[in-house]
């Protein structure tokens, strides 16, 4: 079974085996972007990065594990002979972090391994606001990329938490319980590997999402900030509050991504947008759909709500390929319906490739029917 190892990167590759003055400079500029470095700092740091890159280019396994905490975890996991089909290196959104991840990736590639540096926007330990935005991006990345590109059980997913920053790794240890098969650390002795398997978790045992589904949908799908009073029965850990407005926290987003499908496959959900309406015949047809088709229909209706909300806003119109909302060519339903469907979007593209057909009534859009692809 192929393995993908996800390793958050710190700056150990640059700070290990350096003199005190250089280490102080590196620690001082850990959270700096390139533009935040003054010319003198950048000159010293760039020279050190170049020297460390050259040293790593020639480094044998023993020196690589000595210099890089991330590589120490990977090499120890494979008993001194680094393997693994894919390696993803999560880099902080800083000058030192991105360069560290690149050098680690280069060394792995020299070992004939596939390595991909992945920069996480806003990820640094400079301030809590940016940090929390970055944690939300990590959850989104895990859900939209990691799970889709490396689906289990076909892949084994390992979180290597030997390197990186403590604040990031604390969050990733919790995330690993949802997205990884196991997480690994180098034990305090420096040579023994500690493996923590994914534990069976009961998600949303109190059914907070189910009890407040429409509220969660508005925050998760439409990215709405709601009045705190609307969310007073939802646990604080799932919310982020600024003044009297709340949005989903990184934990709330994680729980939503892992749980929403169990609520989306039960019945047709009400529209998220006030501009979206359902005909009685469309509602009746959905009563006979299987759970997997109901899930797709509800996801597509969420996308359609997003499209309608974005169409009349100053933001870019939301119309992904999976939705593909467009006008009908000609009048294929002439004389068959009143009012006559004028637009279509995808329902699903597998199996019998169904489409959702509807028409505009002023600013509102009504779904008339679920039908075959024309």
Automatic annotation (TrEMBL):
<protein>
    <submittedName>
        <fullName>Putative CRISPR-associated protein</fullName>
    </submittedName>
</protein>
<feature type="domain" description="CRISPR system ring nuclease SSO1393-like">
    <location>
        <begin position="65"/>
        <end position="199"/>
    </location>
</feature>
<dbReference type="Pfam" id="PF09651">
    <property type="entry name" value="Cas_APE2256"/>
</dbReference>
<dbReference type="InterPro" id="IPR013442">
    <property type="entry name" value="SSO1393-like"/>
</dbReference>
